[in-house]
Each structure stands twice: as structure tokens, then as C-alpha cells.
Amino acid sequence: MEKLSEQILYQVIKNRANDSHKGTYGRVLIIGGTKQFGGAVIMNALAAVNSGAGLVTVATDPINFTAIHSHLPETMVMDFNDDLTHAIQASDVILIGSGLGDRLDIVKHTFSAVFAKQILIVDGSALTLVAEHHLPWPKSRLILTPHQMEWQRLSGVSVEQQSFEAFNILAREKFIQKPIIVLKQFHTQVYTNKGIYELPIGGPYQATGGMGDTLAGIIAGFAAQFLLTPLIDTTLAAVYSHSAIADELAHTQYVTLPTQISAALPRFMKRYAN
Amino acid sequence: MEKLSEQILYQVIKNRANDSHKGTYGRVLIIGGTKQFGGAVIMNALAAVNSGAGLVTVATDPINFTAIHSHLPETMVMDFNDDLTHAIQASDVILIGSGLGDRLDIVKHTFSAVFAKQILIVDGSALTLVAEHHLPWPKSRLILTPHQMEWQRLSGVSVEQQSFEAFNILAREKFIQKPIIVLKQFHTQVYTNKGIYELPIGGPYQATGGMGDTLAGIIAGFAAQFLLTPLIDTTLAAVYSHSAIADELAHTQYVTLPTQISAALPRFMKRYAN
Amino acid sequence: MEKLSEQILYQVIKNRANDSHKGTYGRVLIIGGTKQFGGAVIMNALAAVNSGAGLVTVATDPINFTAIHSHLPETMVMDFNDDLTHAIQASDVILIGSGLGDRLDIVKHTFSAVFAKQILIVDGSALTLVAEHHLPWPKSRLILTPHQMEWQRLSGVSVEQQSFEAFNILAREKFIQKPIIVLKQFHTQVYTNKGIYELPIGGPYQATGGMGDTLAGIIAGFAAQFLLTPLIDTTLAAVYSHSAIADELAHTQYVTLPTQISAALPRFMKRYAN
Amino acid sequence: MEKLSEQILYQVIKNRANDSHKGTYGRVLIIGGTKQFGGAVIMNALAAVNSGAGLVTVATDPINFTAIHSHLPETMVMDFNDDLTHAIQASDVILIGSGLGDRLDIVKHTFSAVFAKQILIVDGSALTLVAEHHLPWPKSRLILTPHQMEWQRLSGVSVEQQSFEAFNILAREKFIQKPIIVLKQFHTQVYTNKGIYELPIGGPYQATGGMGDTLAGIIAGFAAQFLLTPLIDTTLAAVYSHSAIADELAHTQYVTLPTQISAALPRFMKRYAN
């Protein structure tokens, strides 16, 4: 198991080419946020936009449109009850599941609509729905972001026994492409087909609702804008950034709110750009 | 009567264990906010989240959902006209009454649904409804946060004669468990079965609408995350923090707004964590 | 004509008594904000709350509730289509007219409901409605805040000829109590039964939509909380504060937004409190 | 081709006359923002208000009213499905097209309602609709703000061949008055009947959704308040300000958000006012 260091940030966060435009930095589609859990997609989007994604659209319950735009006029919105096929297929990165509740229909539709070359991040409620309904995984490139209980439901391996072996078994059997699995815990681990990586930073000041939604949004933002970088590296850099910012905030704060981490991204990333 | 000092903060605000997650810091359910008084639950929630509660849900009139999420995507929301039984019983701390108006039905239902081990904070309109309708107190652990007129309505003892004796009489007769009573006034007093405590700090710059809603939210946030600390101590620490922050803001401000106090919580708490 | 100086601030902004509560600082009712002009009451309320009013309620079109609470959970809201009699009569200060559009019915009702001892501030659309419909003035204490065109419509005296004489004629004939008239212009003038006062500060960086709504809100906030100070003095102090803050902001800004002036009030007032 | 320098700012940004009021600084009407793209008009309006326009009204889908007022109570709103004739004709500057989607009817109506002396800025979706439906240009003074693909659709000249010649051909044939064309790209070019200007500043940190909506809003704000300055100069100053602020923010940020640029306008402009 390899320990991550800030070296991964220098590898991934590159100065942008002059001859680029917002299309260069990718289209992100965020799908989530029922009436009750709309905050989750707001946090997804704040993270994706502040990390530098080119264009971000949120497909959600319409009740959430106004709160999203109150935070972020920079995003577009759409009703997740409408047909999402075109929006999905026009995106580089799709993030599904934060605050998605029991909307199995939307997970199924998204899984059937994605192409093999697209990046699909599966978070939160969508992971639980996959586990409960034994949904087959889609053919796309996959990043899963379970916490330990969600991973137990998905893998059938108890929290105590979660290990690289369990991942291998699951990966061999169920996935068309090998996924990247971000197993959220104290010292988060990232399982990939290149090896396992452990995050030596972060702390319990991050133990507050919405922290995972923010992480998923940073992963989406990094994947979209650093499309030519290996996806494992961009994911690792996103995971590292999320906790490194929290660590910095925690020098002066007892808890670190998810929205504060997103707000700190532009300045944080600048320090590593090269 | 014992005078509180910042010593109570050192006793209560402990560094968090590495091996913890948002569930460790408790689930808070806030119930309040009619169409007219939605701001009250926003202030409850800002205080609870910024003080470090693990997960915060607001049950309120749906008209308030968007404003809540505009302030705090970190919270979940639900319609307080729906059946709250499950949400109540899944929570560690329930705060009811800020901006609840005349919703006697919701108070009654909440009082009947809570378990003996849960912490129920009763604030604002809910206190008036209890007094007016002679509602029996529930069997849960109780914290009441009346201002002097609400306490007069509840206890039948006039503002001039409010004293420890009055509290004892009320407590013996009406409560299953001895409550903690936070009697809000200039130099707030906290009545407990261990004694009476007086807050020697705070000032008239706090005399502005919503200040009590913020206090109730801090009490909820502290109770939820410091679940293993005696509830009297966490309540005293919350009361102390609320006014200590106001005092600091008042060095440079003529009035201190409730939302500013919540925003200052993470940095304030950090200074006392040990 | 007397030139105002910051001396008026020292006269009015007094340290608060310890033995005071939010009721001590007055109840303000703001009436305005049709569907199209909701921003006006938001700016009224931001000014009133930040200047230190005890309790602020906004009676407005319900479409504005969420935006108000997004800015200010510290306020209460009500539908201005409901019967406002009780709300009006329970208030110390009523501010009517900012963004009120053509709601003559609401102006009429308010004028008929106020008591002689209450303070009524009439702003914006309400002034135009009074002029157009030759409404009789109510019996309450009155503060009018016209700009020059509104004053021309009200007084029948053209902008070029506006003078103390014109005021005297109008005042003798139409008002039950002598009003205070804040005639907004470059170097705003305040007409009172004690004399005329001129504001020697302020500048064209204030020439932006909403500036008058903010001024009306500060007048309301000062009148409510300094209830025992002569109303002429509190009005003069409010007028002075509004432009003094703008002047300070203008050291570093080309234009000064109304919402920035409100946000600066607590710190500004602290410097003069004595 | 002339390279722009900050000299253009000293030419355009003049200290305001004392004897001026909000009417002096122009009325801006922003038309755009369907249900899905409401953020675009929020960014238009933030830019127009912060750059110093006197009065700003947003005609948009009513779903966007609350989010607009959450950002900017300083603006007025109206339903873009209502008859806009009066609002258009009462404005000094009309900005149409940001997030307007497929609302061809609104473009047509606006084009037919404007007068020859009014300034009409055509952005985003409106440019695409003009190209797709071969709409005749209106008789007003025109500023077009296409990115390269939109310009290709409008002019029929491919991105590779875009040049002054192409502009001349288009201009001769299709426009009643010679328009100003702001061709957005790395080193944006501005085509005018006085010559072509190139912006030597700006960078890829601006490659994020909403950047163009903010530019259009600054152009509108400058055109409205500097009505007596030649429109070419005000447009050039707006284009320069937009990227100069982004460059400054980029010293410490990896990406620069559109809303941050608007927030920085008042301080930026102050440095050049003379």
C-alpha cells in the first residue's frame, strides 16, 4: 500500500494552455438531490466548479434550482425527471448519487445511457441502490466513492475484513472495466488496478454531513479538466486536495464545513500548479 | 448560585478521536419554522452545524427549504406536516419550537414519539403551547430554553419571583426526568438538579431577534456531539460560548447578529479544544 | 439652514442599558415589495436589522419570502395581502412604500390603521400613490423620504422652487402632526418643525438603485431602537450614518452598493456609541 | 490591429459629477435566463450593478426571481413572458441573450421594439437564434459578443478564416448601423468601424462557465453609465476591465469565477477613476 503525498498534486495540477477554452476543461453532469437532500448536489457543484471544471450542469428535483443558483449561478440546472439521455451523452464526466434517495429509475437509466469512454462517479444513495437491487455495473470508466458501510453492502465483505483481496474478487466478477474505489474512512484508501493508495492526512474535523458530497464533486472537477491525465492520478489528487485543505482549515477551526473546502480550492490549487 | 467561567469550555470541548465519523457526532432533528417564522430554524441549523453536530435535519414548512439550503447545503430537510415518528426516533437530539407558531399538533406528536434516552430541547413557541394547553411533559431528557415571560407562563411564577424554589416546585410535580432550564435574561441562569449556574457575560448588543434561536441551536449541536459528557456540562458550555462570542464581536460592533455568532463558532471552539 | 455633523451621532447612539431585551429596541414592520420589486424590502430589512432594531417583520408578496430569509433569517415575514391591522398596531415603527408598486389598497389600509403615537415612514411608491390619489395623511407621527420628483408630485412645488416655505405651506394644510421630510438629493435636506438641516456629506457613488430603500431602513431601525430620543434627532443621525458609511466605502470603491452600507452599520455605530 | 492597454480605462472611467443621480447612470434591461439557464442573467446583473449602472431590471423566467434577489436585491425583476415593449423602450441599454435558450419569440420582439438610439447588446443564445433563423438585425446601436463558433454561425466564415475582411463584408450587408463585435477568444478582438483592437491580457483561468455572461454585463453597465463617452471606448474599457481583474485574481487562484470578477469591480474601477 502506497502512502500518498503532495507529490501527486504537482503531477496532476498543471498550468493551463493559453489556447484553451471552457470546453477544454470538460462537461460535468451531476445527478442527485431529491426534495429532501438537495444540499448534496449543491455541495457536489460547489466543489466541481471551484476545482475548475469547464461547464457544470445539475440534474435534480426542480425544488433545488433556486438554492443551487443562490450559491452558484455558474451552473446550469435541469429536472432529473426529464429524459437525461442527451445530457448524459454530451458530458465528459457524470457524477450520480449524492442525495439521490430511492430514485432507482434514474440510476438504471444513467447506467444504460453511458458510453464506455465516459467517466461515471457513483456516490451515496446510488451505491446503496446498486447493492440492494444487484444492479449490473455499466460499461463506462467507473469511480466509486463508498464509505465503509456502503462498501460492505456492495462487496458483501464486512468492514473488519475489507482488503485488497476483497476488492480483487469484486472487481474480477462484476466490472467490465476495473473501477477506482475510494473507500472513505479515517485515512481513506483508494483501490485501483495499479495498486492501493492510502491517504495519510485528514482528520475528525471533517466528520460532518456533506463532506463526502464535496469529495465527489472535486473528483468530478479534476477528472473533467485533467482529461488527458491518467484517471487514477486525478482521483488521487482530488482525494488528497480535499483532506489537505481540511487540515489547513483545522489549524484554526474545530470543525471544517464542506462548503469552506470548496471555497478554498482555487487558492489551494494555485500553489501546486506547475 | 455558581458563576460560570470559561473553565466549562475546557471541560467540554475535547479534541476529537481520530477513529470517528459523522455518526459519532450525533443526529440532530430541528422542528419548527412555519411559513411566517422560517428564519428561526435557519438560525437553529446554522448554530447546530457550525458547532459541530454530525448530521442535521430540519423538519419545517416546505416554503423554507430553499432558504435553508441557500444558507446551509449541509442540512437535510423534511416537511413537518409529514409523519415525523421515524425521523424523531432516529435522532440523538431533537430541538422543537423555534418559530413553530401555533402547531400544537406537532408538539403533541413529538412529545409522544420521543424515547426516555433522547434529548429534547423545547424552545420558543413550543414552550408557550405547553403552557397554554397544559401539555404533560414527555419522558425524555429535557432542556427548556424560556425567556422570562415564557417561564412565567410555564411555571405560574411571575418574573419578579422567579427563583430556585419555583423551579423545584415545578420540577417535582411535572417532570418525569429533572429538566435543565435555561432561563434567558441579562445574565442568563441555568437551573439543574446539580444547582443553579449564572452566566456573568453577555450584553445588550445581543438584544436582537433570533438570538435565542441561535442559542437553542448551539445547545443542540453541543448535546449531539458531546453525547458522553454530562448534559448539564454541555448545556452550560453552549450557553457560555454563545455569549462569549457575542462579547468578542461587541468589541467592534454595536449589535451582534445571530448569524455572525454561528459563523464564529468553529474558530472559537478551536481555541478551547484540548 | 443648519449643516449636520457627526455630532448628531454622539447625541443619538448611546450605549445600551444592561437591563434591556429585544423588545426594548422596538418592533419594526416593513410593508412593500411587489412581485417585481421585492429587492426593495430586502434592503429595507437589511438596514433595519443591522442598525439594531429589536424585531423586524416584512409584510410583502409571498414570492419574496425565500429571498428575504436567504439574506436575513433574523426577520419574520407575512403576506401583505392578509389583514395587516394587528401587525401594524403591534409595531412601534411602520415603514411603508419601498417597492410597493400600485398597491393603493395597502397604503389606504395602513394609513387608517396607525395610531397617533406610532411612527410611520412613507417611502417610494407610497409617496407617489399619496400624490396621485390625493390621500389624506394619517394621524400618526410621520417621516416622509421623497426624492425631488416625488416631493414635487406631493407638494406641487417644482424641483427648482423647493424650499422651506413650500414645506411650511404643505405642512400647515395637510398634516395633523408636523412631519419630518427627508428630501433626498445631492446634499440631502431634512425639513422639520425645528428647522432645516443639510447633509454636507455623501456623493455620486451612492447613485445606484436601492440606496433610498437602505436609507429608509436605517431611519426605521434608529427610530425603533432610540424610541426615547427626539424623532428629529434619530432621523438626522440615520441620514448622516447612511452617507458617512458611503463616503468611507468610496475611498476604495467607485460605486457603493446599498447592501454594503447595511453590512457596515454595526461597526460604524460602535465607533460613536457613548 | 491596435493592442489595448490600461490607458483605455483612464479615458473612460471618470469621476462622477456631484450633481447626478441614479437616472444619470442609465437604465439597463437584461433579457435572458430560461428555467435551465437562470444563472446567466444573475451573472449579467451582478456585473452590471457592480460596474455602476444606475438601475438594472432583469426580464427572465419567474423561477429565477428568488435566486436573483438572493444575490442582488439591487435589481428589479419581471416575467419575460409578459409584454416587454414598455420596459425595452424605457431603457438606455438592453442586453439580450444570456441563457435565453430557444426563445426566438423574445428575440424577435426585442429586435422590433428597440429604437435607433438605444444600445442593444446581443449575447449567447440570441446570437445562435439570429444565425439559425436568419433574423434581420434591428436598427439600434449594436454590440455583439460572440465566441468563435457563434461568430462562425453568424458570419458564415470559419474560425480559421475570421478576419477584419469577413467583418466588413458582414457589416456592409446586414447592419443598418455598424455594430461593435466583441469576438471572444484567447486575446479577444473587438471589431469596430474605427478599427480592430486586440486584448493582450486575460488567460485560461477564465475558461469557466459564465465568464461570457459576466463580460456582457460589464459592457452593459459601462455603456449605461458612460452614455456620453463613445460606445467603442466604453466597450473596450469593459473588455479590458474584465480580463484585468481576472489576471489579478489569477495571481492567487487556479481558476477565477465569474462572480468574483463582478465583486472586484468597484475597487478595480476606483483605481482608474480620474
TrEMBL record, chains A, B, C, D:
<dbReference type="InterPro" id="IPR029056">
    <property type="entry name" value="Ribokinase-like"/>
</dbReference>
<dbReference type="GO" id="GO:0110051">
    <property type="term" value="P:metabolite repair"/>
</dbReference>
<keyword id="KW-0456">Lyase</keyword>
<feature type="binding site">
    <location>
        <position position="40"/>
    </location>
    <ligand>
        <name>(6S)-NADPHX</name>
    </ligand>
</feature>
<comment type="similarity">
    <text>Belongs to the NnrD/CARKD family.</text>
</comment>
<feature type="binding site">
    <location>
        <position position="213"/>
    </location>
    <ligand>
        <name>(6S)-NADPHX</name>
    </ligand>
</feature>
<comment type="function">
    <text>Catalyzes the dehydration of the S-form of NAD(P)HX at the expense of ADP, which is converted to AMP. Together with NAD(P)HX epimerase, which catalyzes the epimerization of the S- and R-forms, the enzyme allows the repair of both epimers of NAD(P)HX, a damaged form of NAD(P)H that is a result of enzymatic or heat-dependent hydration.</text>
</comment>
<feature type="binding site">
    <location>
        <position position="147"/>
    </location>
    <ligand>
        <name>(6S)-NADPHX</name>
    </ligand>
</feature>
<feature type="binding site">
    <location>
        <begin position="184"/>
        <end position="188"/>
    </location>
    <ligand>
        <name>AMP</name>
    </ligand>
</feature>
<dbReference type="GO" id="GO:0052855">
    <property type="term" value="F:ADP-dependent NAD(P)H-hydrate dehydratase activity"/>
</dbReference>
<keyword id="KW-0547">Nucleotide-binding</keyword>
<feature type="binding site">
    <location>
        <position position="212"/>
    </location>
    <ligand>
        <name>AMP</name>
    </ligand>
</feature>
<feature type="binding site">
    <location>
        <position position="99"/>
    </location>
    <ligand>
        <name>(6S)-NADPHX</name>
    </ligand>
</feature>
<dbReference type="GO" id="GO:0005524">
    <property type="term" value="F:ATP binding"/>
</dbReference>
<dbReference type="Pfam" id="PF01256">
    <property type="entry name" value="Carb_kinase"/>
</dbReference>
<comment type="subunit">
    <text>Homotetramer.</text>
</comment>
<dbReference type="GO" id="GO:0052856">
    <property type="term" value="F:NAD(P)HX epimerase activity"/>
</dbReference>
<dbReference type="GO" id="GO:0046496">
    <property type="term" value="P:nicotinamide nucleotide metabolic process"/>
</dbReference>
<protein>
    <recommendedName>
        <fullName>ADP-dependent (S)-NAD(P)H-hydrate dehydratase</fullName>
        <ecNumber>4.2.1.136</ecNumber>
    </recommendedName>
</protein>
<keyword id="KW-0067">ATP-binding</keyword>
<keyword id="KW-0521">NADP</keyword>
<keyword id="KW-0520">NAD</keyword>
<dbReference type="InterPro" id="IPR017953">
    <property type="entry name" value="Carbohydrate_kinase_pred_CS"/>
</dbReference>
<dbReference type="InterPro" id="IPR000631">
    <property type="entry name" value="CARKD"/>
</dbReference>
<feature type="domain" description="YjeF C-terminal">
    <location>
        <begin position="5"/>
        <end position="272"/>
    </location>
</feature>
